[in-house]
Amino acid sequence: MKNILNTSKLAVLGGALFLASCGNQSSTSTTTTDSTTTTETNTMSGKPAGLKPAGPAPEWGPTIHPEMQTVIEKLVSYGDKPTESLSAADARKNHTPTDAVMGLIKENNIAVPAPAVDTAGKEIPVKGGNIHLRIYTPKAGKGPFPVIVYYHGGGFVIANIDVYNASAQGLAEQAGAIVVSVAYRLAPENKFPAAHNDSFAAYEWTLKNAAAINGDPKKIAVVGESAGGNLAANVSIMARDKKIMLPVHEVLVYPIAQADMNTKSYIAYAKAHPLNKPMMAWFTEKYVNAMAEAKDPRISLVNANLKGLPPTTIITAEIDPLNTDGMMLADKLKAAGVTVDSKNYEGVTHEFFGMAAVVPEAKDAQAYAAEQLKKAFGK
C-alpha cells in the first residue's frame, strides 16, 4: 500500500480496531465501511501463531520483543529512503508501520472483525482555512455517548486521520465513545503554531456541537499519540487558560514533551525504528519558524504551567527516543498537582500502540487506555 488508502483498505484497517493502527498516509478523507475476513487466529491467547523474527535483535534494540521485531523487519523490507533525507511531500509517501502490520495480517491470515462504528466527515472553519474531522459513533447503544477528541501522530509533518484510523476506531469501540479525529494542518506548509491552534479549534467545535452528534457535552476527553499527545496536552492547557470546560481526562501516548535531544532515551535509541533522533530533528525543523521555538512551552511541555490540568494517563514505549519525554512529563504533571497514571511498556518501539494483531503489549495498552477513559466518563 502506498500513499492513498482506498475505501476497502480503510475498511480492513478500521475493522482491525485495536488490532492495528497508524497506517498509510493520505490527504483524502474517506469514510470507513464494514469488511470481514474469515481466517484463523489463536483465539485462546488472542495472538496470531507463528510470528517470529527472521534475524537477531537489532543493535539499537537488544531488548526488543519478537513480535515487535517482526513488524520492524517487515517495515525495513520495503526499502524506503530515510524520512530525514526527504522532502515532506516525499516522506508522506513512505511506507509506515501499518503497512508492515497489514502485510503481516495478510501473510498470516489473521482475522479482522467488522467495524462496530459508523463514520461521518465534517469540515470546520479555522483561522486561515478549514480542517476535516472524522466522527466515529458506536453502532451499539443509543447515546448520548461520551466523546473523545483524538489527535494523530507524525511529528506535525507526516500522517493524518487515515494513518491513525484504527487507533481512533479502537478507542470508540473499547471506550464506548464517539471519537472526533482531527485532521489538523501539517508543516512545513503550515508552521507553528498552526497545528496547535487547529487542535484547539476542533476541541471548541466539539464542545459546542457534542449534543448534535449524539454526544454528552459534559463528558469530553482528549487523546493523542506522539505529536498528537503534545497537541492533546496543549488543548487542556488552552482550555484552562481560556476558562472553558476542561477535558475530563487526557491520554498521552509517547508524547513529544521537550526539545533536548540528548536525554537518556534519545541517546540510547538514536538509531531506533520506526522513530529515531534524526527524524525528530527533521520534524522539529519542518514545524518551527526558527529552532529557538522548540523551547516554547507549547512544544516543550515540561516548561509549561501544568497546574489545574485534568487527570492524565501517559503511555510510553521502552525502545523510543521519546521515552524520557513521557516520563519527564509525568513527573512534571505530578509536581504540579495533577493526578497521573502511567505505564511504560518494555520491548516495544514508538508506534506500538495500535499493533495488537501482532504485538501483545499493544493489546494491553489499548485496554488500559480505554479503561482509564471509561473511569473518567463514569462508565
Can you give a write-up of this model?
Residues 26-54 have a biased composition (Low complexity). Residues 23-54 are annotated as: Disordered. One of its GO terms (cellular component) is cytosol. The protein has an 8-stranded mixed sheet, with helices on both faces. It contains 11 helices and 8 strands. The termini are far apart. It has a domain at 117-377: Alpha/Beta hydrolase fold, catalytic domain (Rossmann fold), CATH 3.40.50.1820. It is α/β, with parallel strands linked by helices. 33% of the residues lie in helices and 17% in strands.
Which structural traits does this protein have?
379 residues, disordered N terminus, single chain, alpha/beta, globular
As residue ranges, the low-confidence spans are 1-49
Helix content: 25-40%
CATH topology of the domain at 117-377: Rossmann fold
What's the overall geometry? globular
Proportion of strand residues: 15-25%
Strand order of the largest sheet: 1-2-4-3-5-6-7-8
Mean pLDDT: 88
- Count helical runs: 11
**Text of the CATH class of the domain at 117-377:** Alpha Beta
Keywords: Signal
GO molecular function: sterol ester esterase activity; triacylglycerol lipase activity
Protein name: Acetyl esterase/lipase
Biased composition (Low complexity): 26-54
